[in-house]
From TrEMBL:
Family: Belongs to the phosphohexose mutase family.
Record carries keyword Electron transport: no
Keyword Electron transport belongs to the record: no
GO MF, one example: phosphopentomutase activity
CDD domains with a match to the protein in the record: PGM2 (cd05799)
Cellular compartment(s): Cytoplasm
Domain Alpha-D-phosphohexomutase alpha/beta/alpha: 2-147, 173-279, 316-418
Cofactor(s) essential for the protein: Mg(2+)
Official protein name in the record: Phosphoglucomutase 2
Keywords tagged on the record: Carbohydrate metabolism, Cytoplasm, Glucose metabolism, Isomerase, Magnesium, Metal-binding, Phosphoprotein
Length: 562
């Protein structure tokens, strides 16, 4: 188990490769020492710590226990700790960091991972997740502070400490005041007949989405009764990840049919992501992809900004962001409307830090998203936030209903105006690092050393960007502009027809992910079928590539066993 920009994430249990009391204490000791080196006023400003509802009965580990041990470590060194007294959504931690001007934040959560996992997510003083060089600095400090400090195991000591503060009530009040700044149609919200179903998938989101709806003057959504209360066993789903689509939403569909709701809002267990489904005229349910909802929210948030901006010249300081593997629909909107679009590396750690840089320069960052159903809709939180995204989506749907439009119809209108962006993404599960390495080595040495594929089926490759090695064939010096990392794999292929496909490893799960996108010109409905065909064919090619490498590796292992 290694500390990286995603912090820690592993199964709970005994041993140095698992999340347990000892590894939490060691990690926090190192983090504390690193903060002491970077902030002379650490003992004045302090840190915030939050936790979700995860628990592991056989090992005795839980998010709350780990959070209290982390708090005890800081308090033992004279550092004030703002420890939430109850479960919270992950976005509350970065919000608290910036709202209280703290040095750092910790959220104990494994988000949508399997039930046996837990994690330790770290935010810097700017309210964004840490990036290099902080990950390496913290990791080194952890190695230098392995021996538990005196009384490190006794979390009861914090209860009587004057350094312990509970921000729960304050943040519950201030957060909802801040997201109300994104509410533009309160009268419509009050009168809408549109009904919503919400599921928190056995996580923390129920209470907070209910409060968000109240803050926007929307009637509360129907809550899926079997899933609304936190349950660390996630008993009704195979994977507690709404990104998996219809398989996670079975109970939501049933409740929506029963109560006449047209839209389903689903948060992951730590409520930092959002999936949305809508009932179609045919009676079928459409689950929007992360890219599709990103297109809708980007259009909506820009439209609301434009309708409420008193100075048309202000658009020169407006920005939207998305990750490099996400749809480029925001770029298309930006080119036509006149605002700025930037792409970053995958993950909100990059978008959050870039958003903060732009905001410090006086720019307005209206929206950021990634295809993995993560959305930053409110500048008060520099991370993905499934609570604010849920209520803003509800307001958008309520507004569209007054125009007799569904979300699906509006998505089509967005594509008609800005270009028909078709994306396809999926993943392979792979627990063997050697297979993963062999796959990417083969792509980098396709027809000899340091050669990449020149085509994918009948589609010609016109450009290669390898953010593991730093190679980019489109640049004059052949060096990538985006940051590179040898610790992760990521290769992007640009095709002669304008399509883009990327294959990369996940930073938090044993997955190889792949993505493809092709855009037809605005208003050109005749071309709509071609992007679908292209995206499917490229993804099929990726699948065969992976299958062949895995089969070859299996044969090698078999031969070695004789």
């Amino acid at each position: 188990m290694e500390f990286g920009t995603a912090g820690l994430r592993a199964a709970m249990g005994a041993g140095i490769s698992h999340m347990n009391d000892l590894t939490i204490i060691q990690t926090t000791q190192g983090f504390c020492r690193y903060l002491e080196k970077n902030f002379s006023d650490l003992k004045k400003r302090g840190v915030v710590i939050g936790f979700d509802a995860r628990a592991h009965l056989s090992s005795g580990g839980s998010s709350k226990r780990f959070a209290r041990l982390a708090a005890n470590t800081f308090i033992s060194q004279g550092v004030p700790v703002y420890l939430f007294s109850d479960i919270i959504p992950t976005p509350f931690v970065p919000y608290t960091v910036t709202h209280l001007k703290l040095c750092a934040g910790i959220m104990v959560t494994a988000s949508h991972n399997p039930k046996q996992d837990n994690g330790y997510k770290v935010y810097w003083e700017n309210g964004a997740q840490i990036i290099s060089p902080h990950d390496k600095g913290i990791s080194q400090a952890i190695e230098e502070n392995q021996e538990p400090w005196p009384q490190a195991w006794d979390d009861r000591l914090i209860d009587s400490s004057p350094l312990l503060h509970d921000p729960y009530a304050m943040v519950n009040k201030e957060y909802f005041k801040d997201i109300q700044k994104q509410c533009f149609y309160r009268n419509i919200n009050k009168e809408t007949n549109l009904k919503f179903v919400h599921t928190s998938v056995h996580g923390v989101g129920h209470k907070f989405v209910q409060l968000a709806f109240k803050a926007f003057d929307l009637s509360p959504p129907f809550a899926v009764p079997e899933q609304k209360d936190p349950d660390p066993d996630f008993p009704t789903v195979k994977y507690p990840n709404p990104e998996e689509g219809k398989g996670v939403l079975t109970l939501s569909f049933a409740l929506a049919e029963k109560d006449g709701a047209r839209i389903i809002l689903a948060n992951d267990p730590d409520a930092d992501r959002l999936a949305v489904a809508e009932k179609q005229e045919s009676g079928e349910w459409k689950v929007f992809s992360g890219n599709e909802l990103g297109a809708l929210l980007g259009w909506w948030i820009f439209t609301c900004w434009k309708n409420n901006s008193r100075d048309a010249r202000a658009i020169k300081d407006v920005y939207m962001l998305s990750s490099t593997v996400s749809s480029k629909i925001l770029r298309a909107i930006a080119l036509k409307e006149g605002f700025h679009f930037e792409e970053t590396l995958t993950g909100f750690k990059w978008m959050g830090n870039r958003a903060k840089q732009l905001m410090d320069q006086g720019k307005a960052v209206l929206f950021a998203f990634e295809e993995a159903i993560g959305y930053m809709c409110c500048p008060a939180v520099l991370d993905k936030d499934g609570v604010s995204a849920a209520v803003i989506t509800a307001e958008m749907a309520s507004f569209l209903a007054t125009r007799n439009l569904s979300l699906s119809q509006q998505l089509k209108a967005v594509y008609d105006e800005y270009g028909f962006h078709i994306t396809k993404a999926s993943y392979f599960i792979c627990h063997d690092p050697k297979v993963i390495q062999q796959l990417f080595d083969n792509l980098r040495n396709f027809d000899g050393k340091n050669t990449y594929p020149k085509s994918c089926g009948r589609f010609k490759v016109s450009g290669i960007r390898d953010l593991t090695t730093g190679y980019d064939s489109s640049q004059p010096d052949q060096k990538a502009i985006l940051p590179t990392s040898k610790s992760s794999q990521m290769i992007t292929f640009t095709f002669a027809n304008g399509g883009v496909a990327t294959m990369r490893t996940s930073g938090t799960e044993p997955k190889i992910k792949y993505y493809s996108e092709l855009c037809a010109p605005p208003g050109n409905r005749y071309c709509h079928l071609q992007p679908y065909i292209w995206c499917n064919r490229v993804c099929v090619a990726f699948w065969y590539c992976f299958r062949e490498i895995r089969a070859l590796h299996g044969q090698i292992i078999l031969l070695k066993s004789f």
